[in-house]
Amino acid sequence: MAVWTISAQEGTPGERVAAELAAAADVPLYDRVGLAELARRSEIELPELDQIEERFCGRYSYLMLMAAGAAAVPDTLSELKLREALPELGRVILGEAARSACVIEARAAFAVLQEHPTAVHVRLRAPFEHRVATYQREHLVDRHRAEKAVKHADHLHHAWVRTLYHLDVDDDSRFTLVLDASRLSPDRIVEILLAAGGSTRTDLESSSVR
Questions:
Q1: Which residues pair with 104 in a beta bridge?
Q2: 32-59 in b/e burial notation, b at 16+ Cβ within 10 A?
Q3: Could you tell me which of 198, 200, 208, 210 has the C-alpha nearest to residue 1?
Q4: Tens digit of each residue's pLDDT (9 = 90 or more) over 70-98
Q5: How far separated are the first and last CA of the chain, in Å rounded?
Q6: Dist CA 55 CA 52 (whole Å)
Q7: What pTM was estimated for this model as a whole?
Q8: Nearest CA-CA partner of 55 in 148, 149, 156
């Protein structure tokens, strides 16, 4: 069975699809929480991820880090070392997850596992207007706040992948499947991903009966 990686734009149902796919395929789900737990079990020292993207991928963070680093500020030197270590940490943790069939919902998983022989790399996207409307509905905010949040999330996603692995998340050639979440329901997306991984709901239900 496959290893699915899911890279989802803000305002698309990436978390829901990942969870439902893992349940349907009866494989582990490695989202941010799952990957942190895997790192703990594997005795891999992983930094706190909640704020790390903002710290390293904010619009001016790199320039400020470099300027402070040139001045030999101790805390900044430590941040720069962590920044350099993150790509390898990602490779180790995601490599451990991908030893067997699973669903990985993480921004840069497709970049780390490009050469994995059974990986199905999935990009979920949708038109900007659709994503803004979805964000408004899910977070109960006005349009201005929704637009700002979606644009900021897009920036962080692009910057994270580019900074760590020097790839463009909008390069469709890096993905097995690129799906428009405004045209497909989450259930239909899960069915497509199961088929891409060599299974269907019917196959899995039949095997569970046996």
A1: 5, 30
A2: eebbbebbeeeeeebeeeeebbeebbbe
A3: 198
A4: 444 344 445 556 667 788 888 999 999 99
A5: 18
A6: 5
A7: 0.83
A8: 156
